[in-house]
Design a protein that fits this description.
Blueprint (H helix, E strand, L loop, with lengths): L1 E6 L1 E14 L6 E14 H10 L3 E5 L6 E7 L4 E8 L8 H5 L8 E6 L7 H13 L4 E5 L12 E5 H13 L1 H6 E4 L5 E3 L2 E3 L12 H16 L2 H15 L9
Parallel strand pairs: 1-4, 1-7, 2-5, 7-8, 8-9, 9-10
Antiparallel strand pairs: 2-3, 5-6, 10-11, 11-12
Helix pairs in contact: 1-6, 6-7
C-alpha cells in the first residue's frame, strides 16, 4: 500500500510537571517541568499513523519547523498552556506538484492545517490531476470549503469545522455528499448516517483526527468500502484517545 501525504507538519512537545500552587502575582498555576515527550504533529502525525498501520508513505511538507508546546499537570494529565512557535511556514515548492504522479499511489491525503503550505489553487490542482489518474483523494483542511474541493473523493472535518462550513455545505450538495464529520463521543456522520463509537475513558484527544484520517484511508484502500473504513477509523481513534499526548495507533 503506497500513500502520498501532502501537508504542513509540526513538532508536538509535551512538558509534564508538578503543579502544587498558584503564582503570587496572578491566579495562574506554577508548573515545574520534569519530563518531556515530543513527536511529529499535524500532517507528520498522519504519516506516523499510516506507517504504524503498515503503509508505505511519501511525504511532501514544509521545511520550516513549527512547534506546539503543551504544558501538562502530570498528576491529573490536565493541559495548562499551549505555546505555538513559528505558526507559519513557506508555500509548497510548485515543482514538487509537477512530480507528484511520477509514482503510482493507492491514495493521496491532503492534511492542510492552514499554516501557509498549501493555497486553495494548489489543492485544486492536486485533486484534479489525481482524479485524472483515478487515485482516491482524502482532504482534511482548516480552510473554508468551496468549489475548489469538488474533485476530492472524501473530506474529513470535525464538528467545529462543520459549524464553520455549515452554510457552504447546505448550499453545495457535491461537497456535502463527500464530507465525513467526526463528532467525538457522538461518533461521526456521513451522508445522513451516524456511525456510533465506543465510549472509553479519555486521556488525550490531541491528534485523534489524524489517527481517524489514517485509519480511514488504510481501510478504504484495502476494502474500497467507506462504511468499513469509517468503522475502522473510529476503532483506531478509540485506541489513541486512551493514551497521553499525541499517540499513534
Amino acid at each position: 500500500m503506497n500513500i502520498l501525504v501532502i501537508g504542513d507538519n509540526c513538532t508536538d512537545i509535551f512538558r509534564y510537571g508538578e503543579v502544587n500552587r498558584l503564582a503570587p502575582e496572578a491566579p495562574v498555576p506554577i508548573i515545574k517541568p520534569d519530563s518531556e515527550k515530543s513527536n511529529p504533529g499535524m500532517a507528520g502525525n498522519v504519516v506516523a499513523n499510516l506507517k504504524a498501520l503498515g503503509a508505505k508513505v511519501d511525504f511532501i511538507t514544509n521545511q520550516t519547523e513549527i512547534k506546539k508546546i503543551r504544558y501538562v499537570c502530570s498528576k491529573y494529565n490536565h493541559l495548562l498552556l499551549r505555546v505555538d512557535e513559528n505558526d507559519k511556514c513557506e508555500r509548497i515548492n510548485l515543482s514538487d506538484l509537477i512530480h507528484i504522479f511520477d509514482n503510482q499511489y493507492d491514495a493521496i491525503i491532503i492534511s492542510d492545517y492552514c499554516k501557509g503550505f498549501l493555497f486553495e489553487n494548489d489543492i485544486e490542482d492536486i485533486l484534479k490531476n489525481a482524479k485524472k489518474e483515478k487515485i482516491p483523494t482524502f482532504l482534511d483542511t482548516k480552510k473554508i470549503l468551496s468549489d475548489w474541493a469538488h474533485e476530492v473523493t472524501f473530506i474529513k472535518i470535525n464538528s467545529q469545522e462543520y459549524s464553520i462550513n455549515k452554510e457552504v455545505l447546505a448550499s453545495d450538495q457535491i461537497l456535502l455528499n463527500k464530507t465525513i464529520i467526526t463528532r467525538g463521543k457522538y461518533g461521526c456522520d456521513y451522508q445522513g448516517k451516524n456511525y456510533p463509537t465506543q465510549e472509553v475513558p479519555i486521556k488525550d484527544v490531541s491528534g485523534a483526527g489524524d489517527t481517524f484520517l489514517s485509519g480511514l484511508v488504510v481501510e478504504y484502500v484495502r476494502s474500497k468500502n467507506i462504511d468499513k473504513a469509517i468503522q475502522f477509523a473510529q476503532d483506531c481513534t478509540t485506541v489513541v484517545i486512551q493514551k497521553a499526548g499525541v499517540s499513534t495507533i
